[in-house]
Design goal:
Elements (H helix, E strand, L loop, with lengths): L2 H17 L5 E8 L2 E8 L15 E2 L4 H14 L20 E3 L9 E3 L6 H5 L13 H8 L13 H9 L15 H14 L3 H13 L17 E5 L2 E6 L19 E2 L1 H12 L8 H8 L5 H11 L3 E3 L4 E3 L12 E5 L3 E6 L4 E7 L10 H11 L4
Antiparallel strand pairs: 1-2, 1-13, 3-8, 4-5, 6-7, 9-10, 10-11, 11-12, 12-13
Helix pairs in contact: 1-11, 2-6
C-alpha cells in the first residue's frame, strides 16, 4: 500500500464519523517508507465554518509522554542524568519515601521504601505513585491535593507539585508495580531541575528545532488555529476547552504527562525521527531502550488492568506484544491521548500514523474511531 492509498483509506473510514457529528473534525497523518501524507475533514468547532487543516493545533494530552521520554533520553545521552540515578539528587521531596503497608490502607499505615526511586522508575512508570482507580484514602488525598491525572496540566508550579506529592505516601514499593501518568509529570520536574532549564526551552532546543517543528509547544502560539475540545456526554458533545482556554497562554506547570499542543504534521515528523533510528536527536540504542518492553513479569501483570491484554510498556510508550483490540500489529509502540489522539509507529513495516480529534476518550480503551483509523492505515478489510 502506498501512502496515498493509506490516507485515502483513512478518510473513507472516518467520513461517517464526521457526517454523523460523532467527530466535529479530525486531522490524520500517515508515514510509509519515509513518505508522508495528511488528510483532514470537518471543522475546528461545532457550528463553525472554519475547516480542519494540516496546520490545525490540538491538545495532545498523553501523547506528551513519549515526547517527555525522548527529552529525558537526550539528557541521558549527554550524561546529565542516568537511568540508575536516584531521583532524590534533584527531587529532595522524594528522599526516603513512605509506602502504604498494603494497597488501600490509611495514609498513616506505612512502611519505609525498600529502595530509593530511580530515574528509570520514572521513565517506566514504576516509581510507586500514579493514577488510582477505586475509592481509597490515598486517592481521596490525591484529589484533594489536585494531583489526580487529567487532560490538563496541574494548576500550580513544579515546586508546589512536588511538595504536595512528597507529603503523600507511595501506593507501591518502588519498582514493584506499574501506575499510570504521575511519573511523567515528576519526570518534567526532574528534567528542569537537572538541566537548570525550563522544559519549554529544552523542548525547543533538543526536539523542535532539530526536527523543524513549529507547533509542538506547551501552549498554542496561534490560538486561531487551536481546535475546540469536547467531552462526550449522554446529551451530546459538551465543551471541554475553548481556544481561549487552558492552552492559550504559558502554563505555570510545564507538564510532560498531558501538557503539549501540536499539529499532526509536527507529530508525524517526531514519529519519523523514531522510525529513522533517532536521527538527528537520539542514538539508535536510545530508540531501542524507549521502544522495548521494559517491565518485568510482576510489573507487567500490574499494568494489564489499565493497558489491556497483549500490551506492555517501554519508556513512556505502550508496546504491542501481540494482536489485541487496537488493530495495531505486534512490535508497534506509541500511545493515545485522552483528548482524542492516537499515534504509533511500526518499525517492522517502517510505518507511522497519527490521528488527532476533538472528541475526548471515555475510557482507556481504543475507541471505534481509533480502531477504524488503524485498520485503514494497515489496509485491513472485513
Amino acid at each position: 500500500m502506498t501512502v496515498s492509498d493509506a490516507i485515502a483509506s483513512v478518510q473513507e473510514a472516518l467520513e461517517g464519523f464526521v457526517e454523523a457529528e460523532h467527530l466535529p473534525g479530525y486531522v490524520a497523518g500517515v508515514s510509509i517508507d519515509g513518505e508522508t501524507a495528511i488528510g483532514a475533514a470537518g471543522t475546528l468547532a461545532l457550528g463553525s465554518d472554519e475547516p480542519m487543516g494540516a496546520d490545525t493545533v490540538f491538545r495532545i494530552a498523553s501523547l506528551s509522554k513519549p515526547v517527555g521520554a525522548v527529552l529525558a533520553l537526550t539528557l541521558i545521552q549527554a550524561g546529565a542524568i542516568a537511568i540508575d540515578d536516584e531521583v532524590s539528587r534533584w527531587l529532595p521531596e522524594l528522599t526516603a519515601p513512605r509506602v502504604l503497608r498494603r494497597r488501600g490502607a490509611k495514609l498513616d499505615d506505612t512502611v519505609p521504601a525498600r529502595r530509593p526511586i530511580l530515574v528509570g522508575d520514572l521513565l517506566t512508570s514504576t516509581a510507586g505513585f500514579g493514577l488510582l482507580l477505586g475509592d481509597s484514602p490515598l486517592r481521596a488525598a490525591m484529589i484533594a491535593s489536585g494531583l489526580m491525572p487529567g487532560p490538563f496540566a496541574p494548576p500550580f508550579s513544579h515546586d508546589e507539585f512536588m511538595a504536595r506529592l512528597g507529603a503523600l505516601p507511595l501506593e507501591l514499593q518502588p519498582g514493584e508495580g506499574w501506575l499510570y501518568h504521575t511519573c511523567a509529570d515528576v519526570l518534567a520536574v526532574l528534567i528542569a531541575r537537572a538541566s537548570g532549564r525550563s522544559c519549554g526551552e529544552l523542548l525547543r532546543e533538543r526536539i523542535a528545532e532539530p526536527l523543524e517543528l513549529t507547533d509542538m509547544r506547551f501552549f498554542a502560539a496561534a490560538v486561531e488555529r487551536l481546535a475546540t475540545a469536547y467531552m462526550p456526554t449522554v446529551s451530546g458533545l459538551e465543551l471541554l476547552d475553548p481556544p481561549a482556554g487552558a492552552f492559550s497562554r504559558p502554563p505555570e506547570f510545564e507538564a510532560l504527562g498531558s501538557g503539549l499542543v501540536c499539529t499532526v504534521s509536527d507529530y508525524l515528523a517526531f514519529e519519523t525521527m523514531l522510525l529513522d533510528g533517532g536521527t538527528p536527536i537520539l542514538e539508535p540504542e536510545s530508540v531501542q531502550l524507549l521502544s522495548g518492553d521494559r517491565l518485568d513479569d510482576r510489573q507487567r501483570e500490574s499494568a494489564q488492568s489499565f493497558l489491556g491484554a497483549g500490551r506492555s510498556w517501554g519508556l513512556m510508550v505502550e508496546v504491542e506484544l501481540e494482536r489485541n483490540d487496537s488493530e495495531l500489529q505486534p512490535g508497534s509502540f506509541g500511545w493515545m491521548g485522552g483528548t482524542g489522539t492516537t499515534a504509533y509507529v511500526d518499525p517492522g513495516r517502517h510505518l507511522g500514523g497519527v490521528l488527532f480529534t476533538q472528541r475526548a476518550m471515555e475510557s482507556n480503551r481504543p475507541t471505534d474511531v481509533f480502531r477504524a483509523f488503524w485498520r485503514a492505515v494497515y489496509g485491513l478489510t472485513g
